[in-house]
Amino acid sequence: MAALQQHVAAVKRAYFSQDAHALLAAFRIDPGTFGAIQADLNRDPNRDLSAWVLGQIPVSASPTDSERFQSLVADFLAYVRDHAPLSYASAASQAPAMADWDRAYDAWALVYSRASAFFSLPDTVWFASSLRFFASSLVTLAMAVDHRTDAVQKRKTTDAAGRLSKAAGMAGNDRSQARGSETKRAAVLMLANLSFKAYFKLNNTRLCETVLGSVENALKLNRTFAANNGQNDESGEQCYSRADRVTYRYYLGRLRLFQHNIRAASTHLRWAFDNCTLRNLRNKRAILIPLVATYLILGRYPEPALLEASNLSQTYGALMFYLKNGQAAAAMDELDRHMDWLRFRGLYLILREKLQISLWRNLARRCLALSYGPAQASSAPPTLRVDMLLSAARLAWRDPSLQPSDIEAILASLIDQGFVKGYILHSKGVLVLQKGPHMGFPPIWTVFNP
C-alpha cells in the first residue's frame, strides 16, 4: 500500500496548499508509478474508493466545502485500478493485450468531467494547469481509441469535442472583474485549442464558431478590465502564454481559410508563424503550409530559400513558378500531382478554385507586358487585344476550343471582381486598361476584403 498512500498524501498536500505544480506532478504519473499504484489498488478491488478518499482527504479540512475534488481523486484512482496507462493508447505502443480502450475512454471522460466540475467552483483558477492535463489527455485518448476501434465515425473524438467546447464556454463567460490570469478566462484559449484540435480531426469546422464565441467573449472582458484600470491590452490576449496564442491563431487562420476569408487567414497564420519560436521548427512548418497557400492566393510569393529550408519546394516551388507566369495547365497539373497531400491538409479545393483567377489575371498581365511598348502614346491608356490573349490562353490552358466570347466573359468577370481595372471595347476587340503604375492590374492582395 506504500505507493498508493504516498500518492494520495502527495495529492492531499498539493490540494491543501493549492500548489498547482505539485498537484500536476501528482496526477501526471509515469508508467512505473502507475503500475505500483495499480497493484496496491487491486489488493482490494472492491474497495469503495469514494469513501476511502473522503477518509484520506476530509472535506472538513479542505480549502473548499465541496466533495468535488475528492470525487475527482476517487475516479482518477478507479481509472488507474482498472485500465492501462494513457501512454499505451497509441496504436504504435505495446499496450496490454486485454486493454478495453472503449471503457478506458469512458472512465477517463468521467475523470475529466470531475476535473471540469471542480474547476467551475469559485477560487479554483490555480487548478488550471491540472485541468490542462486532464483535457489534453482526453483529446489524445479519444483520437487514439477512435484510431484503434472507430476510424470512420470517430465517436470518442466527437464526445471529447463536445465536453471541451462546453468547458470553454464556462471559462469564457467568467465575468469576474479581475485580470484574465486571475479568472477562469485564463483557461479559455487552452480549452478552445483542444476543441479545435478535435473538431479539425472530425472535419467539422462549423462547430468551431461556438468555441470562437467563447474566446471572443473572454478577450472582450479582458480588454474591458484593462481599459478600466489604465492598462494596455488591445488584443485581450496578454494573460495567455505565447504557445496558446500561437496555437489559437493557427487554428483561427485555418478556419478563416476554409471560410474563404483569405486576408484574415493570412493575417492570423502570419502572426502564428512569426511568433512560433525556432525551437519548434516542426510547428513552424505546420503553420507555413497553409500560410504559403494563402499567400499564393493573394499573389504574394515566398522566397525559394524559405520553401527549401522548410522542405516545401517540391510541393510549392513549381506551382509558384507556373502561377507567376500564367502557365495555367501546368499549374493545374502541379496541383493534381500533389492532390492527396493537399487534400489531407484541406488545401486542394480552395487552391484549385482561387488560383484559376490569378492564372487568368497573370496571363493577361504578361500579354500586356509583351505587347505594351514605347510605340504607344504615353497619354493613352494601355490596351490589350483580345485576340492576342485568346492565342496565349489556348496555349496556357492547352485548350484550342477557347473562343473570343470565352475570353470576353472571363475578362468581364475579372473586371467585375476588381482583379482588372478597365473595360472591354467590343468594336475594336481590345481591353482598355486603367492608366497608372499598375496599368490596370492592381496587386491581387488588395482586391480581397480584409
Automatic annotation (TrEMBL):
Q: State one molecular function term (GO).
A: RNA binding
- Protein's organism: Pseudozyma antarctica (Yeast)
Q: Which PANTHER family match?
A: NUCLEAR MRNA EXPORT PROTEIN THP1 (PTHR12732:SF8), UNCHARACTERIZED PROTEASOME COMPONENT REGION PCI-CONTAINING (PTHR12732)
| InterPro entries listed in its UniProt record | Csn12-like (IPR045114), PCI_dom (IPR000717), WH-like_DNA-bd_sf (IPR036388)
Q: What is this protein called?
A: Related to protein that forms a complex with Thp3p
Q: Which GO terms describe its cellular component?
A: transcription export complex 2
| Lineage: superkingdom | Eukaryota
GO biological process: any one?
poly(A)+ mRNA export from nucleus
Q: Indicate the segments forming the PCI domain, all copies.
A: 246-438
